[in-house]
Amino acid sequence: MAAPSTVGSFPSPYEIETPPGCEGWEDMYPYYARFDEERREVDGQRFWFWNSMHFPLPMPAFDAICIDSPYQALGNWQNRVFAVPPAMGIDWRCINGYIYISGNPVLDPEKIGERAGYFQARAGYYYEHWDELYGKWRTKMEALIAELGELEVPALGEYEPDEVAFADAETGYVAVLSAYRNALRLIDVMWQHHFEFLLLGYGAYMTFAELCKANLPDIPDQHIAQMVAGLDVLLFRPDAELRRLARLAIDTGVDGAFVEGRSPEEIEAELAESDAGRAWLAELETVKEPWFHMATGDGLYHTYTSWLDDARIPYASLIGHIAALKAGEDIERPSDHIAEERERLATEYAALLGDEARQGFEQLLALSRTVFPYVEEHKFLCDYWFLTEWWNKIREFGDLFVAHGFFEDRDDIFQLSRLEVYSALDELALTWATGGQARGPKYWPPIIARRKEILERLAEWTPPPAVGAVPEAVLDPALIMLWGVTTQRVHAWAQHQEGGSELTGTAASPGVVEGVARVVKTVGDIGDVREGEILVCSITSPAWAPIFSKITAAVTDIGGVMSHAAIVCREYALPAVVGTGRATSQIKSGQRIRVDGTAGTVAILE
Amino acid sequence: MSVTRSLDELRQADAAAFGGKSSTLGELIAAGIPVPPGFAVSTTAFRAFVAEAGLDGMIAAELGRMAPDDVDSVGAASHAISQAMRFAPVPDAVRDEIGGRYAELGDDVPVAVRSSALGEDSQDATYAGQQETYLWVRGADHVCDAVRDCWVSLYSPPAITYRARLGAADAAMGVAVQLMVDAEVSGVMFTCNPVSGDPSMVAVNASWGLGLAVVGGEVTPDDYLVSKVTKEVVREHVHPKEVEYVPDAAGRGAVRVDVSAERRSVACLGPAAIEALVDVAGRVETYFGSHQDVEWAVARGGELPGSLFVVQSRPVTALPRRGDPPPATSAMALVMSAFGAGEKKRN
């Protein structure tokens, strides 16, 4: 771990050493992703923080598209469309495979004034027509997902099909190259849609939160969130469907197949043996579309597949729900209670305010509730459904490379950058057409093997939460709204460089719990979580909902009260501390820890 | 002569005759707040006492010759008047009436005798010098003595200095006598956070034993901030509580003792007590229509919420100003300013 040069500072991004055996990691990433000498004077003085919320693991070369494409989109909407007065977009750099980001502020008052005019007109239009625009957005997203589904990756056989010869069809090699270009276009469009409403959605919420805090200085953040959060949102449907299937299994007497420790295949094999079991499986099929497009994790990596690809999570959840039902427990999400509590809090807080403040409170609450469906639903449509399908589409190109001897495994494609893939595809098309000898089959496998090894080693390395200069204040609305990176948080990071037995974060869900920590760094570790443990992770995802019935508390590296970990923990009434900066690096699995979700602290007890 | 009334008969309008504390206790009872039963002694009793003892002239003379800015002079006047009052008898009629009221509360029961000053509610701080309380008083004679001691406190140095500066000649004092609560825990709560001004919070200070330790600042109390809306404890600080006041073993008065080691660092309020306190805070605030500073006690051996009693309530007068309140603009203008687009418009 990089030691700080002085207390209350961050290491310089230029002083961080490459872990042994990881030399050459830079080759995986674009030339502009490095802390290079040309920009040292500026980059060395900027504040950069590890975006462990989205990139908790070292980035595979291909997956870096999920840095460029979203930051193009975020910058575009924030800087070029809405012209948020004080902030342009987010820059990124890579250190040892980990992604650090930094905002670009607007400092010139005249420029800020000019941008304010654009912002008022354009953001005002969006807020005014929110429901209509969001309705259109849903249609656009659904069309985009459909288009992705229809995208074909043609096979390149010995001869072109007859249609090319007799019916003027497109040639295979052109179809392959354009399919790849199209795949890249589709993900850019997805990220474009993803960020269209994001800032405005979070911004309305933040403004409401600020008004609450100005008038009710001690109001817990979670009460603000509870007043706004939606009730019937897409994100909760997948788990609701699993609960329904669990009840169905019991009602039709097939629950005996759901034994802890069995694989999905074993369970399905037993179910296939009886009429009732087959009926249950048929019902499962109806649920899969679209609810199994839930991702197995909240991440922008190709390794996050959907429940369709990896049924272990939904089956683990089914096993848990069935066991709980048989034990006489109530497994229903207490949505009536949540709805009542949401209204009760809003009414009671409003009653405590003076007339003027109450008017602002009620208007902003209404606006926040208007924008919030987007905030909660874009995750399902963009991050889970589209993205898991898109990675699978890229895997189809991986199959093509395997078929032509370039790669050993379809997932090897993710070890090449998107431009390297395009280059390799060009060679594949060329040599397939010419019948000449391709270099790729000899050229790529050693590179792929070396990059896998580097990624494995980099995963053992612990990145510092921030590098560069400690900012006096964080003013960028995007950093505050989307990452929960506030001045206070950054200063706490700077002071806790050395670690220690207590971590501080945001109190996201109240309560105090002591227990054994389980550090989950990748989705593959989820299966290790045992009943009664405390989940420690970079960030949780609603896709992990099934394990929330097992754990007793959650701690994350990054995220604010509106992060999904926070929302789900409040749903499950589990204490949660989010945004600790370094929980996954300070805490080891098996350690006893105490999570105080009321105070926002985590103590390592042993 | 009728110089006493049952507390539950008093209302705010009686403040001129019985003092602020007694009339507020009457209002609390009317609001259904649990207040220990008791009676009030009117200012008429005080005036009768001074008149019958023939102290008018002496008091006027002492105060007339006092130099209000000279500490020694004030001290001498206060001493002279206090001594004279302590040796003067409480008139028989007053004594009999207090004795009768006391007997109605029970047989030789312990009571708290508290001064109930005029104008106490609104000018709390300036009357600090005459806020006398005598706890665990038993027997009619001792109650009368304690009432007289309350009257004497009207001539404490700070009280007479204050009145002299104000040019207020006339002074009078009421007294409240209440059944003693054998407090296991007691303290003070505000129906808002007095530090931040947050009206959705109840701020509670609590310590072991009788309320003297908290009110007198002799311990650093446990400190709770509780949401009125959800009854959740939002912040909690448990401090080591070194001393507490308990009834004297002889059965009269209260004594200061060390808190036993095993209770010192233990939180003195549990969830049931906090819930009862927040409930009462809400009712008191609603009844008076303003934020209140409430003294309370939880009786030993009782069961909550029935064992919680309020012994005093006054308005919170000075709340901090909370920054700049957001200007009266639309929600949209607020959102715009969150993005830094609040002021200038495109040309």
Provide an overview of this structure.
The complex is a heterodimer of chains A (606) and B (347). Chain A has 606 residues and is of the alpha+beta class. Chain A has a domain of 104 residues: Phosphohistidine domain (Glucose Oxidase, domain 1, 3-Layer(bba) Sandwich). Chain A has 21 helices and 12 strands. Chain A has an 8-stranded mixed beta sheet with strand order 5-12-11-7-8-9-10-6, covered by helices on one side. In chain A, a hairpin with a 4-residue loop joins strand 11 and strand 12. The two termini of chain A are 21 Å apart. Chain B has 347 residues and is of the alpha+beta class. Chain B folds into 2 domains: 176 residues, ATP-grasp fold, A domain (Dna Ligase, domain 1); 133 residues, 2-Layer Sandwich (D-amino Acid Aminotransferase, Chain A, domain 1). Chain B has 12 helices and 13 strands. A 6-stranded antiparallel beta sheet of chain B has the order 9-8-7-6-12-13. Chain B has a 5-stranded antiparallel beta sheet with strand order 1-2-5-3-4. A two-stranded antiparallel ribbon of chain B has the order 10-11. The radius of gyration of chain B is 23 Å and the shape is globular. The termini of chain B are far apart. In chain B, 44% of the residues are buried. At the A-B interface, helix 3, helix 7, helix 13 and helix 14 of A face strand 9 and helix 12 of B.
Q: What is the level-2 CATH architecture name of the domain at 501-604 in chain A?
A: 3-Layer(bba) Sandwich
The CATH homology group name of the largest domain in chain B: ATP-grasp fold, A domain
Name of the CATH first level of the domain at 501-604 in chain A: Alpha Beta
The CATH class of the largest domain in chain B: Alpha Beta
Query: Looking at CATH, which topology of the largest domain in chain B would you report?
Result: Dna Ligase, domain 1
N- to C-terminal separation of chain B?
82 Å
Strand content of chain B: 15-25%
Shape estimate of chain B = globular
Q: Rounded to an integer, what's the Rg of chain B over CA atoms? A: 23 Å
Q: Roughly what is the average pLDDT of chain A, rounded to an integer?
A: 89
One letter per element, helices H and strands E, the order of chain B comes to EHHEHHHHEEHHEEEHEEEEHHEEH
